[in-house]
Write a structure and sequence with these properties.
Largest sheet of chain A: 6 strands, mixed
Order of helices and strands of chain B: EEEEEEEEEEE
Number of helices of chain A: 0
Strand content of chain A: over 45%
Helix content of chain B: under 10%
Oligomer: heterodimer
Number of strands of chain A: 12
Shape of chain B: globular
Shape of chain A: globular
Strand content of chain B: over 45%
Order of helices and strands of chain A: EEEEEEEEEEEE
């Protein structure tokens, strides 16, 4: 069974604080893909990052960084020096190949509030 | 053009109405998807089209009928919906056989009265 758990329902921080969003996944596949998406109030999901199961290298993109650890089945997302524009719902997602194509399941999401 | 365009943005329909949602992309993506998202919930996969053929149907009720007329267009035909079908319907696309992430449209917010 595939499962993505985002235990933090809501997080509230003050601007310029660092914040880490947790993601834990379950899968029996050896090949899979992990994603983070951002959903601002406008509703559109925005792709942030993709990792495949064979690439545990951490990544930094500006104020965003991701920590992928297969040993703990975690793919955490850190925002450094948060800004009000970071306020959104963030979804972690797991994708695997199945008959018919890729199927992606999403975690429940973490709603981030960044206050000025 | 790196967008997925969905129309209409908002739709109110009665339970006896027939309506259609439209999704368009011009990125050359060969996989297209419909997702349903209820308030404060994650998106749930409904259908996957791969190279214009329906490849995954996640046991969606027949009152939702997808159609892919060509590689750029994806429709979702709605008939005899129930109030509980009210949700945000998201279309997405991705490169055909790879998995580099989806490009999502901004969705159609559907209200069934």
């Amino acid at each position: 069974a595939q499962k993505v758990t985002q235990a933090q329902t809501e997080i509230s921080v003050v601007e310029k604080e660092d914040v880490t969003l947790d993601c834990v996944y379950e899968t029996r596949d050896t090949t899979y893909y992990l994603f983070w998406y951002k959903q601002p109030p406008s509703g559109e999901l925005v792709f942030l990052i993709r990792r495949n199961s064979f690439d545990e290298q951490n990544e930094i993109s500006g104020r965003y960084s991701w920590n992928f650890q297969k040993s703990t089945s975690s793919f955490n997302f850190t925002i450094t020096a948060s800004q009000v524009v970071d306020s959104a719902v963030y979804f972690c997602a797991l994708s695997r190949i199945s008959e018919g194509g890729f199927k992606t399941i999403f975690g429940a999401g973490t709603r981030l509030f960044v206050k000025a | 053009d790196t967008e997925v365009t969905q129309t209409p943005k908002h739709l109110v329909m009665g339970m006896t109405n027939k309506k259609s949602l439209k999704c368009e992309q011009h990125m050359g993506h060969r996989a297209m998807y419909w997702y349903k998202q209820k308030a404060k919930k994650p998106p749930e996969l409904m259908f996957v089209y791969s190279y214009e053929k329906l490849s995954i149907n996640e046991s969606v009720p027949s009152r939702f009928s997808p159609e892919c007329p060509n590689s750029s267009l994806l429709n979702l035909h709605l008939h005899a919906l129930q109030p509980e079908d009210s949700a945000l319907y998201l279309c997405a696309s991705s490169q055909g056989t790879s998995n580099y992430g989806y490009t999502f449209g901004s969705g159609t917010r559907l209200t069934v009265v």
